[in-house]
Amino acid sequence: KQEVTQIPAALSVPEGENLVLNCSFTDSAIYNLQWFRQDPGKGLTSLLLIQSSQREQTSGRLNASLDKSSGRSTLYIAASQPGDSATYLCAVTDDMRFGAGTRLTVKP
Amino acid sequence: ETGVTQSPTHLIKTRGQQVTLRCSSQSGHNTVSWYQQALGQGPQFIFQYYREEENGRGNFPPRFSGLQFPNYSSELNVNALELDDSALYLCASSLDRNTGELFFGEGSRLTVL
What we know:
The structure holds 2 protein chains of 2 kinds. By secondary structure, chain A is an all-beta fold. Chain A contains no helices and 11 strands. The mean pLDDT of chain A is about 95. In chain B, strands 2, 4, 5, 6, 9, 10 and 11 form a 7-stranded mixed sheet that branches. A 4-stranded antiparallel sheet of chain B has the order 1-3-8-7, with no helix packed on it. The mean pLDDT of chain B is about 95.
């Protein structure tokens, strides 16, 4: 059974810092890993989808990588801004398994 | 192109009642999945519907049931509500059951008293 873990549960950084969020999964036989952003009480906003044939995806200041052999994905956020404050979740969408998220706070 | 829409946005029920939540999938999407998200946790998969048929189910009891209609909109029904059913219920649609990218609605916040 696929398990998805995100560590740390919470992270606080000063504005302008580059940061990395981590996502680990136990079964490396995956096809799709997706990163989401969730604001308090809201739905999930899709950020990036990485398919198994890809190693990474980029959108603006965001870059997500996938290493199936090590069971890890990372989300890199460049030049963080207070508007980036939210909870970031990863999911192995083949199995509909989500991590619990990392709550990011970017301080002005 | 309209995104995924859910209704109602908030509702309050009492223990033992029944509730129906609704979801309209994104245009062109034939697959809908439902999730329960408790505070501070990740979404938990309830079930998925593909072309009006259930196409996978998570670890939820039978009192959680669903439907998908010919226009691919969907309903989640929960009978005999329990206090622990209080959560944010999320609907996601995808282009096809084998297409990994999920698009979520804003959710329905259910409070059971």
